[in-house]
Amino acid sequence: MFRAGLRVQKGRSHDAACDLEQVIQTTPSNHWPWFVSTPLLVQTGETAKYRAQCTEMLRRFSDTTDPDIAERVAKTCLLLPSTLDPEDSILAANLADNSVALSKKGELAPYRRMGKGLAEYRRGRFASASETIDLLQMELSEPANAGSYDDCRACACFISAMAHHQLKETNRARAALNLGREIVRTKLVSADGKYLTPAWWSVLMTQILMSEAAKTGGGETSAP
Q: What pLDDT is recorded for position 221?
């Protein structure tokens, strides 16, 4: 796991993916290597492998009662549009719902809420996705959360941009996209492309959603 992280930082994504594949084969019941390797498969263009891995993750973990595992599996399996079979897409979306339902009363759980917003968007429920994400962004903007959850805030911006675009709310879509890009540029990735957080997998997920949001029509497609 540690070597995979070092290789990602050095731009050796294929090698990092191979490292994680070996870890998965050794400890297949551990969701974590499955979780962090999926964005690497997307980044390296191995869509068929990504799809197969998501299917296996859902087979292994769809009945989890751990809200964090439910959120992580759902989020990674919903990372690309129209990749999974309809049945698997339903399983992933249900996991996102469960991750929120399993949260304790009063718990902020921003990543779970973000995952639910993504699930709503993938279901085509654009108004519901927008409502879920906009409420999350309001909570994350409160002073007590300042400087926290930067990757979650960026992802929320990109989901918001896509949802508002589908709702034909062009100005709100563009504003959300631009804010998300600014968070990525100043909080997650340095000028030389190095990650500003040890959570490289989360940065990769954020960049994948950023690319989709730009292509969806939220604004210009230039990199941040």
A: 39
For residue 143, report the phi and psi dihedrals to the nearest 5 degrees. -55, -35
Written as six digits, the tokens of 108 are: 């902020």
Query: 31-43 vs 47-61: helix axis angle to the nearest 10?
Result: 160
SS3 219: coil
Distances (CA, A) of 58 to 53, 81, 203: 9, 16, 23
Q: Are 126 and 163 spatial neighbours (Cβ–Cβ below 8 Å)? A: yes
CATH number for 211: 1.25.40
- Residue 172 is predicted with a pLDDT of 94
In the chain, % of residues over pLDDT 70? 89
DSSP string, 18-34: HHHHHHHHH-TT-HHHH
Q: Are residues 89 and 140 in the same domain?
A: no
168-219: pLDDT as tens digits: 999 999 999 999 999 999 999 887 778 878 788 999 999 999 999 999 865 5
User: Domain range spanning residue 99?
Assistant: 1-107
Domain count, the chain: 2
Provide the whole-model pTM. Answer: 0.90
Do 73 and 125 lie in one domain? The reply is no
